[in-house]
Design brief:
Blueprint: H1 4-27, E1 32-40, E2 46-54, H2 59-68, H3 70-80, E3 90-95, H4 98-109
Helix pairs in contact: 1-3
């Protein structure tokens, strides 16, 4: 169970990361990256960020690119949240494949 503080920080990080990835997708046309969920550790030092990539065929490629630019993304996040957060948690990115799973279930039900 997440505390209220964890939930507020998770929402703040999700909003700011969505704006960062909006600029990231402008540099890579034809790909849309969205932040679906952020989970914060109880000590607020680690953030698990779940990303949804469209089209899903390029998901592993884009996730690798995001992981390679992890330090730059954290720096951008620190610049955006400098007045709200004292320290920015370290970011760990994961692929959120829940949309692919939903499509698969829809196809099976049809």
């Amino acid at each position: 169970m997440e505390s209220t503080r964890q939930q507020k920080i998770a929402r703040l990080i999700q909003k700011d990361l969505s704006e960062i990835f909006l600029g990231f997708t402008k540099a890579h046309p034809g790909v849309l990256i969205s932040t679906t969920r952020v989970r914060i550790s109880p000590d607020l030092s680690v953030a698990r960020v779940y990303l949804s990539v469209f089209p899903s065929e390029r998901a592993t490629e884009m996730l690798q690119l995001v992981n390679d630019r992890q330090a730059a993304i954290r720096h951008d996040l620190a610049a955006r949240t400098r007045f709200q957060l004292r320290t920015v948690p370290s970011l760990t990115f994961f692929q959120d494949d829940s949309l692919d799973y939903m499509e698969h279930i829809d196809e099976l039900l049809k």
